[in-house]
Amino acid sequence: MPKIEPKEKRLVAIVSGALGVVIVVATILTLILFRGVALPFQWDQLLTLGLIISLFPPATVEYLDLRWQRGIDKNIPGLLREIAESGRTGLTLTRAIEVSADRDYGPLTPELKRLLAQLSWGASLEDAMRAFAVRARTKLAQRTATLIIEVARSGGDTQEVMEQVNRHIGELQTIDRERYAQMRPYAVVVYIAFGVFLFTDIMLIQTFFTQIANLQASALQTAGGGGVFGGIGNTNIPLLKTILFDATIIQAIFGGLIAGKMSEAKLGAGLKHTVALLLITFMAFFIFVWGL
């Protein structure tokens, strides 16, 4: 899995933001230049498409980066276990890390190679581990680096201490897994709530507002403006469609961000949920509402 550097994420965010601004300006110019011309989409629909296009790259980058970070955390216990095993043979901590780094630890392997390169260039183990923690960008990697630095400072029985560190890191991972397992269903709750909201909007348009408009039109034709619906006025169905569509878009944006924050404890993780909910909204209205 690829590693996404923070500067690359910022660059993608800037380019996507600029793309979003261009889409907004192009939408405004289109409405001005083609005023009175029947366009395939309204202004809010065009903006929604632009929002989906501009959010897709950051959502993809954030998803890949989170996968890479989870791969780092997943392989840290294996690395500590190998270091402890190597320490049993009497190797120093630095040499044990070098021997253990020959194995495949997924996305952790390139970072270990860079750590060993720094050691070969004369850097201290403390400096190399701190640089590793900065590159890994995960709390577990930072804790592991700090513990290894303390082990190197204290000396003593490296094998026994590293086994204790490994058990401690395993307990931390177990706690994180339990927390995520408990919070992940809340993302499903967000999707269910959004689905109910979207279904209600579509049903209101199809079975309530449209029927009222038809009854009003029928009453005005048969009673010459009198009857039960004569004093209510015509129901503006296009305006109601626009209001409900915009309300659903707002629900999709914030619902997706909340789902990511609750399920993965990161707001950026909600971008993929936001893009998914926006696509669901657009397709549902395109199929069931705008075709009416």
Query: In whole angstroms, how far apart are the ends?
Result: 45 Å
Radius of gyration over all CA atoms, rounded = 29 Å
Name the beta content range.
Answer: under 5%
**How confident is the prediction overall: mean pLDDT?**
84
Residue share in helix:
over 70%
How would you characterize the largest beta sheet?
none
Overall spatial form:
elongated
Structural features, described:
The protein has nine helices and no strands. With 292 residues, it is mostly helical. The protein has a domain at 71-176. The longest helix is centred in the middle third of the chain and has 66 residues, at 158-223. Helices cover 80% and strands 0% of the residues. Mean pLDDT is 84; it is low at 228-232.
Keywords:
80% helix, 292 residues, 9 helices, mainly alpha
Report a brief summary of the structure.
This protein is 80% helix and 0% strand. It contains nine helices and no strands.
